[in-house]
Each structure stands twice: as structure tokens, then as C-alpha cells.
Amino acid sequence: MLCNPCGCFQIPLNWVELSIELSCRILFYFIFYLGTVRLQGGKNEFEGTVEVYLNGMWGTVCGSHWDNDDATVVCRQLALGEKGTAKHVPFSGLGLTPVYWNEVRCRGDEENILLCEKDIWHDGTCPQKIAAAVTCSSSLAPVFTPVRLAGGNNTHEGRVEVYHAGQWGTVCDDQWDDADAEVVCRQLGLGGVAKAWSQAYFGEGSGPLLLDEVQCTGNELSIEQCPKSSWREHNCDHKEDAGVSCTPLTDGALRLSSGKGSHEGRLEVYYTGQWGTICDDGWTELNTQVVCRQLGFKYGKRAPESYSEGSSGPIWLDDVSCSGKETNLLQCSWRGWGKHDCNHHEDVRLICHPDNDNHKLTLGKAPLC
């Protein structure tokens, strides 16, 4: 009886059995040893010089073109987090260590550094005399599912795609709302006004549908921390791909606050780093249509008095008058910033509506500032 990591085997009775056993041993070697990575010489387990196991020996990687995408793959492979920072260490302090690879070119989403493009050095030298090293995020910190935006007109918007088990895929828009969008924008490092989009607003994806029923509170640091379906469990198709926009906060940005969802509430405008309200003096239905259109809705109406929760911030605009053709509220006529004769009982409150019954209302809390 022979035992190894592939299992236990009877002593081979013929060459067929021997071939099977040898194949299993070779497969085990390639999976568990060839390309094994470790970090050496760091202050803790989350940093150090990158070493790979090849030809029965540990060796280093030349630091030429070594970047954060390469470092991220190493950190993910070692289960030390989903983000890595590329570092470089002089060879002078490493001793007689062979150099195996040069110019590693990872995309950043590979599961193993073996899957990255690279140049193999046959002479074992590195002209730059620097070795690749990394610093990984602590394993005690939340491990984030990689997220990206695709199909938008700029880097601040697009179809939400997440990375899992070696594939990028989309998110179904069931339960998708502005609280979910807030988390995605935060995870991507994008500030501003977060807005959820449904029904493949930014185009249909082509990969698998990976998540459904995402229900963030809006306070999570990563979509991974939100209640959601199990991976690949859904009842959707790509016509329901979820999207987000993370509109940068500039003077004149609008939001609806303190309502039952992001489609209703007190109208607030952003100016000089602070959200403030708009007085209802002279407010017309044409003004409402301009605002709702700017917020991504088709039409709207004034909210009833039951939505009259007060504000403690500044009153930024008064005497606003729109023709209805404007694409931005600041294109309408109004008094200067902060000039008014109102109090917060006169704050404008609106309810915006989608363009048809199939478009979901994007519910959620107003973004925090």
C-alpha cells in the first residue's frame, strides 16, 4: 500500500496502475508546488519579498514593471486580502537567490500568479537589481469582492460587475436601490451622489449573473458585507442588470432627502461643500419637471404637507423660475446663492416618478455628506 496526497494505492500490479499513480503524483506536484508563492523578510506575514517555488528551489521575481495589479494577485493567492501594493527590494540584501521571472504582467483579476503573462529569465539575472515585493491588506480587515463599472460614458457610472471564482459577472436589479449604489461607489472610492439604475440601463452584460437580491443598508464598506443571494442563485436575465452612477459633488448637484425613498423628499442643492434647501416662493410645475429630469426621472409633483420634516441647513436658493426646457436647475433664473426671505417651513418637497411602470423606483437613503 502506497499513500500520498492523492490517496492510498496498492502496490501496482501492472504498468497501467503505475502510470495512474505517477500521473497523480505529477498532478499533485504541479498544483501544490509549482508556482507556490510566499513572502519573505517582511515585518509581518502581510508583507515581504515575493518568492516562487520552481525547479525544487525558492527564487525571486525581478522587480521590472512590477505594479499593484501583480501585487494584488499575490495577496489574493495567499488569502491575505483583495488588494496589494507593489514594493521593491534591493538584491544586495537577499543573498544568492535565483531570479525566475521578469516583467510579470498581471491584469489584477487572476487567481494565481502562474496565470499572469511574464518573461522567464534563463540566465537568472536582473539588470535593475531590484526584487518584487508586496504589502497586502490585513487578513483581519474585510476581504472585498472586486467590483467594477462597465458600459458607462465615464468612470463614474456603469453596469455593476463583480468578480468571483475567476469570472466577472453582473448583478440582478431585484431589490437594487440607492443604498446598494452608495456601497458600490464607496467601495470604488468614488464620492458624490450615488444613484441606482435598473433594467440594464448601461447595457446588458455578457458574463454570468453572479448576485441577486442585494439589500445593503448603505453603511457597508463592501458589497460583500450586504445581505444577498448565494453566488449564481437568481431568477433574472441580463435585461435586469443593475447599474450605478456616482455623480461627483459639484455646485448645483441635487438630491431628495428625508422621504420614503430617493425619489421623494425635501429638495436639496449642493454648494461650497454643504447641502442646503430651496425656498418654495414662486415654485412651479415646470421647476419640478426640470428637477426630476435632472435626477433621472421622467416627471414629478409637489409632495403633500405630510412630508414636511424640517431642515437645519442653509437655504441656498429662492425665487427659482424655469421654462421647463432646462437640463439643470442652475440654468433657470434664481436669486443669488443664499439670498432669500424664507424659513425651512417653506422648503420645496417633491415626489418624482419613473417614465413607465416597468422602471423600478430607486429607493434608498440620501447620500451622506
Tell me the overall shape: elongated
Percentage of residues in helical conformation: 10-25%
Q: Report the biggest beta sheet as strand number plus sense, adding barrel if it closes.
A: 7 strands, mixed
Secondary structure tally, helices: 4
Please give the alpha-carbon distance between the first and last residues.
68 Å
Q: Could you state the order of secondary-structure elements as H and E?
A: EEHEEEHEEEEEEEHEEEEEEHEEE
* Total number of strands: 21
Structure report:
It holds the Pfam family SRCR. Keywords: Disulfide bond, Glycoprotein, Repeat, Secreted, Signal. Disulfide bonds join 62-126, 75-136, 106-116, 172-236, 185-246, 216-226, 322-332. The chain is an alpha+beta fold and 369 residues long. It is built from four helices and 21 strands. The protein has helices at residues 15-32, 68-77, 178-187, 285-294, and strands spanning 2-4, 7-9, 36-41, 47-54, 57-61, 84-90, 99-105, 117-120, 130-136, 147-151, 157-164, 167-171, 193-197, 209-211, 243-247, 254-257, 264-271, 274-278, 299-302, 315-317, 349-353. Strands 3, 4, 5, 6, 7, 8 and 9 form a seven-stranded mixed β-sheet that branches. Strands 10, 11, 12, 13, 14 and 15 form a six-stranded mixed β-sheet that branches. It is elongated and about 80 Å long.
